[in-house]
């Protein structure tokens, strides 16, 4: 816990000088002031995070945390838990949605086993960081111990520290874990204060008539474990997941290492919310990308104060919306590098007499 505390204490504000220089450059480019809207904001944010003008086209990674969930025993997911393991092999084979979109975005995909309920061969090309083989069924007992939650957070921290030393400037959150929308809903309800029924959705495709059962399971898990809303680690341990805790660690360490943290959908946002409750100093380092179909996503974004720029009715996870968002971020950086100024292009806008 001391390590997490000192990491949080090391998070610095953005470099406002780099941001101001970036804004000045954007205003000199051949376009009406501010007309590239969110692209301009993103370029300034990245400059402030990296502390440089102009920020380089960033090296990008998508860190995909994988783990299983004991609560799947309650019939809250459409697919069997074994799909988590099967999808890991799909990621390695390059055939999952996140493989396609990471390639498209030129982001390196790093798959991390934090708690998949199986034994992977040690030579499988993933990061082997298993804390335990899935969580316990949170309807009956705490999903995991506080010690395990902290160990999972540390997996995320260590991953980011390695990536920071390799020069990555942007990291996206990804996850795989059948049942994890149930855990995310519990975290979202406890940490936003919203009723469970407002933050539970169909996840990976349960039929509408099953949603009320999922609501009941989440309500009972919260009632049984009584997670303390003032203690985000307690919430992650009692009603969370190993991959969610690991993602929270990624968020904290990204901010501490001046790396932009790209959020995906509802599940990754539940990890961001937990990290935000640990320290709101992470906020300037966050980039929200898309709005998920899961009903609880907006509630989380409202608490943290983030506005996503894509709405594609996606509800897949894995980091898919996040890497799509990275392509927009790259576009913003290219504007800074490649657009001509008024002076360079000899464009002299006439002052309007309006
Ligand atoms: C084949 C398949 C691939 C996926 N990739 C991401 N998810 C998504 O669905 C899961 C969460 O939904 P729930 O809580 O309803 O299980 C997570 O693994 C999430 O990443 C998938 C789900 C499936 C079935
Ligand atoms: O928004 C998400 O992260 C999400 C939603 C449904 C299923 N998997 C992920």
Descriptive overview:
This protein is of the alpha/beta class and 354 residues long. It has 2 domains: 2-55 and 337-345, Nicotinate-nucleotide-dimethylbenzimidazole phosphoribosyltransferase (CobT), small domain (5,6-Dimethylbenzimidazole Phosphoribosyltransferase, Chain: A, domain 1); 60-329, Rossmann fold (3-Layer(aba) Sandwich), CATH 3.40.50.10210. Helices cover 50% and strands 9% of the residues. The chain is built from 15 helices and 6 strands. The protein has helices spanning 2-9, 16-28, 37-50, 82-93, 97-105, 146-165, 180-192, 196-199, 211-225, 232-239, 242-256, 266-278, 296-304, 320-338, 342-345, and strands spanning 60-67, 107-115, 127-128, 170-176, 260-262, 286-287. It has a 6-stranded parallel β-sheet with strand order 3-2-1-4-5-6, with helices on both faces. The radius of gyration is 21 Å and the shape is globular. The mean pLDDT is 97. The structure holds alpha-ribazole-5'-phosphate and nicotinic acid. Nicotinic acid binds at residues 181, 203-204, 264-267, 292, 294, 297, 315-317. The site of alpha-ribazole-5'-phosphate has 18 residues, from helix 4, strand 4 and helix 7.
């Amino acid at each position: 816990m001391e390590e997490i505390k000192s990491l949080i204490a090391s998070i610095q504000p953005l470099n406002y000088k780099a941001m101001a220089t970036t804004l000045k450059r954007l205003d000199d480019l051949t376009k009406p002031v501010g007309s590239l809207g969110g692209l301009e904001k993103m370029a300034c944010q990245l400059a402030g995070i990296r502390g440089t003008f102009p920020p380089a086209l960033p090296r990008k990674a998508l860190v995909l945390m994988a783990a299983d969930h004991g609560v799947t025993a309650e019939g809250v997911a459409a697919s069997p838990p074994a799909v988590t393991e099967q999808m890991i092999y799909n990621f390695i084979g390059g055939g999952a949605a996140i493989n396609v979109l990471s390639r498209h975005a030129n982001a390196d995909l790093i798959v991390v086993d934090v708690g998949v309920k199986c034994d992977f061969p040690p030579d499988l090309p993933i990061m082997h960081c298993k804390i335990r083989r899935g969580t316990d069924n949170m309807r009956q007992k705490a999903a995991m111990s506080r010690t395990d939650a902290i160990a999972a957070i540390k997996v995320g921290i260590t991953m980011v520290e390695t990536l920071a030393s390799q020069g990555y400037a942007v990291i996206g959150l990804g996850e795989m874990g059948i049942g994890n929308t149930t855990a995310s809903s519990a975290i979202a309800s406890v940490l936003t204060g919203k009723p469970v029924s407002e933050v539970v959705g169909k996840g990976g495709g349960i039929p509408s008539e099953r949603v009320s059962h999922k609501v009941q399971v989440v309500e009972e898990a919260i009632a049984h474990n009584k997670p303390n809303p003032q203690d985000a680690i307690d919430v992650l341990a009692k009603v969370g997941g190993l991959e969610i805790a690991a993602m929270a660690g990624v968020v904290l360490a990204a901010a501490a290492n001046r790396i932009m943290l790209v959020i995906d959908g509802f599940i990754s946002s539940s990890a961001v919310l937990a990290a935000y409750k640990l320290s709101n100093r992470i906020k300037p380092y966050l980039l929200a990308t898309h709005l998920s179909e899961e009903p609880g996503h907006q509630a989380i974004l409202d608490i943290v104060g983030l506005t996503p720029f894509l709405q594609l009715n996606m509800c897949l996870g894995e980091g898919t919306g996040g890497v799509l968002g990275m392509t927009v971020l790259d576009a913003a950086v290219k504007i800074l590098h490649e657009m001509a100024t008024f002076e360079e292009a000899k464009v002299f806008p006439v002052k309007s007499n309006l």
